[in-house]
Amino acid sequence: VRTVIIKELEGFIYNNIRYLGEGDIIDSSSPETSYKVNYINIIKPKYKKIKADGYITLEGKQSGTGSEQYSIVNVIKVDTEEKTSYWIRGNFSKKLWLRFGKGEYKITVHKTEIKKADLNYEGDIYAWSCWNPSYEFYVENTRDEDGKFYYPSDAIQSDDPIIMEKAAEIVEGLNNDNDKIKAIHDWVAKYLYYDDDSLNDGKRKKQDAISAYNNKTGVCEGYTSLLNALLRASGYRVKAIEGTANGGGHAWSNILLGNKWYLIDVTWDDPGMYGDPVGPGGADDDPLGKNIRYTYYMLTTLTGVNKSHTPTDERIDRSIGNRDIYKWRGYPNGIY
């Protein structure tokens, strides 16, 4: 019987390290701004500035409807302006990880209008515009640790109990990095099938790790999100790369092992990645993984095979509109 300790009475356990989260109050004034929106209610944190160890938990309710049912949250390192972003919707309790090391962060919550989304707002979100922040917090991160490409993000939820339990299950009994990475790569290639339906206009599903896991399908971004979440939950630092491959838009992974980065494209290593009309169980989708490819596995050349992969520095700007425009950047050289 396997037991994975996810939470304890104080803080959160991530890769066997305890992070304490919200700490002492520095400024007890309200974080609300003059741009208060009646359908965005933040109940935690309650204060303008606090200390934290690694992350804070944002709790509240976003009760907007239609194109205003999501709000974007930006987490910005004040001295370097590095930024990551999160979506909130409905009743929420979301960990905001302080991914850029020790120091001061500004966290802003915005009224957001979705300009384009698939599947009646249940699918991928393509474009949005934002107002000035309704809430503005400052957080002094006391943990001196580089969380880039290692901590969870909004699309790579390596702190989710489902992901953490599955990662522990996949690598159980394996003692070296190469075996663990290969086992995770193989599990994703066997578990997911390529979602041709999401290539149709208006039908693209969300491509974060949990959505790909729950749907058991995804396009390249969903494959990459799930692979990276499982790898991060197993202690590895891994980037999600946006770019082009053989002339088309694509996403894949770079993983750090020792002091060297390696390319993994689990989408292209899945033999059932395109055109399987019956989805899982099709002729090219062996459930035992006997025909998994390793053509794009742990390549030392980050441009793939014969320069098949061309990475870009950041995700395409999907924002449109005439107000404050935000780019979902993740971090340069990778997504999230």
What does the model show?
- The chain has 336 residues and is of the alpha+beta class.
- 15% of the residues lie in helices and 34% in strands.
- The longest helix is centred in the middle third of the chain and has 15 residues, at 177-191.
- The radius of gyration is 20 Å and the shape is globular.
- The two termini are 34 Å apart.
- Residues 1-8 and 314-333 have low confidence and may be disordered.
Structural class: alpha+beta
Average predicted local confidence, pLDDT:
87
Dominant shape? globular
Spans of 5+ residues with little confidence (pLDDT < 50)?
1-8, 314-333
Amount of beta strand: 25-35%
The largest pleated sheet is described as: 6 strands, mixed
User: How many individual helices?
Assistant: 5
How many beta-strand runs? 17
Q: What is the count of distinct domains? A: 2
Please render the helix and strand layout as text.
Blueprint (H helix, E strand, L loop, with lengths): L11 E3 L2 E3 L1 E7 L12 E5 L4 E5 L1 E8 L8 E7 L5 E6 L1 E8 L5 E15 L7 E17 L19 H11 L5 H15 L1 E2 L14 H7 L1 E2 L1 H14 L3 E9 L2 E10 L2 E5 L1 H4 L39 E3 L25
Parallel strand pairs: 5-11, 12-13
Antiparallel strand pairs: 1-2, 3-5, 4-6, 6-9, 7-8, 7-10, 10-11, 14-15, 14-17, 15-16
Helix pairs in contact: 1-4, 2-4, 3-4
